[in-house]
Write a structure and sequence with these properties.
Blueprint: E1 12-18, H1 22-33, E2 41-47, H2 53-60, E3 69-72, H3 79-89, E4 94-97, E5 103-104, H4 106-115, E6 126-135, E7 144-145, E8 148-149, E9 166-169, H5 171-175, E10 186-189, H6 190-195, H7 207-218, E11 222-234, H8 242-261, H9 273-287, H10 297-315
Parallel strand pairs: 1-2, 1-4, 2-3, 6-11
Antiparallel strand pairs: 4-10, 5-11, 6-10, 7-8, 9-11
Length: about 325
């Protein structure tokens, strides 16, 4: 660890919550340390494992030549509690929460450098970017970007450029689904995120989705830039567990019902709750289907028809 990480007041904090995944965390940190920022940045690792002090310190010692801060929680705060811990410990005006198995691309620094080139420049309260998928599930190929197989060692050579177009999404778009991969590629105002309550762990496993829905309801629309700035890693993990997959659907329906009750979306959206849950199940089954299993033609058509309906409701109907 290097104390220089605390010397200058950072403009951006890259908070990395972690739990017993030092092998993946090493790749994540390597991707961060390869970035070149033109403004002060702090990197903080927040370890949610109260035990294994010697192992943790030994693993972190590998990065002693890089400026970062390592925190270790006295108690296990749970996944979303640890995300909030990262928000609280961050000193930057802006924060991005980077999962300990995901990777940032050089485009992330380039995009922020361009937006913060002038001393007086500021970001909007929230700014999101697109990301690519790094599929490392068993018997599945790695995601190829621009003809390359992606791995941590080749990040600086990866070309993942989008159109750079920015579109915003509000409550109606978020009612129908979460466009983000957790928090990857999203930069938020630290103080504003804390002021609206941070991540609510009672909404597990969709506390991130609930946070974004709460944000658009309380703060406003979220701009999303098409540039790909990170790699979201997919592996055999808790998201594959049937109970968790069911909880994604039931909790998402509960959240949508709350949005209707609170009046942030039109009341007639209640007619779409059952259909939305069925389509979400089809999409989860498609994304997490077994190796070699194909999505049925009927399910593809249902998802396509649903997306056409969603497009009409969020574009043609007057926005809030």
């Amino acid at each position: 660890m290097d104390s220089s990480a605390r010397d200058a007041a950072p403009l951006l904090s890259i908070a990395i919550p972690t739990y017993k995944r030092f092998d993946l965390l090493a790749e994540t940190l390597a991707s961060v340390f390869a970035l070149k920022f033109d403004f002060p940045v702090e990197v903080l690792v927040v370890d949610n494992d109260p035990g294994d002090d010697a192992v943790a310190l030994g693993e972190m010692a590998r990065f002693a030549g890089h400026p970062f801060v390592y925190y270790k929680n006295v108690d296990n705060l749970g996944m979303f509690g640890n995300w909030n811990q990262g928000l609280k410990l961050a000193r930057g005006k802006y924060v991005t929460i980077l999962h300990d198995d995901d990777l940032l691309l050089p485009a992330f620094a380039a995009e922020l450098n361009a937006r913060l080139a002038q001393p007086s420049a500021v970001l909007p309260p929230i700014l999101a970017f697109h990301v690519a998928i790094l599929d490392q599930r068993e018997n599945r190929p790695h995601e190829a970007i621009a003809g390359r197989v992606v791995d941590a060692a080749s990040l600086t050579a990866v070309e993942a450029r989008g159109t750079g177009e920015t579109r915003s999404r509000g409550v109606r778009e978020f009612f129908f689904g979460n466009p983000f991969c957790g928090t990857l590629g999203i930069v938020i105002s630290r103080d504003l995120a804390l002021s609206i309550g941070g991540f609510d762990a009672s909404w597990f496993p969709i506390a991130d989705y609930e946070f974004w829905c709460r944000w658009v309801a309380l703060v406003g629309r979220i701009p999303i830039v098409s540039e790909k700035v990170g790699l979201y890693r997919m592996r055999q993990n808790e998201s594959m567990v049937p109970q968790t997959r069911r909880a994604f659907i039931t909790k998402s329906r509960e959240l949508r019902a709350r949005m209707i009750k609170d009046g942030v979306v039109p009341r007639f959206y209640a007619l779409l709750l059952s259909a939305s849950a069925r389509v979400q199940k089809l999409m989860i089954d498609r994304d997490w289907r077994a190796e070699g299993e194909r999505a049925t033609r009927s399910s593809v058509l249902v998802v396509f028809a649903w997306r056409c309906l969603v497009f009409s409701l969020t574009r043609v109907v007057s926005r809030r």
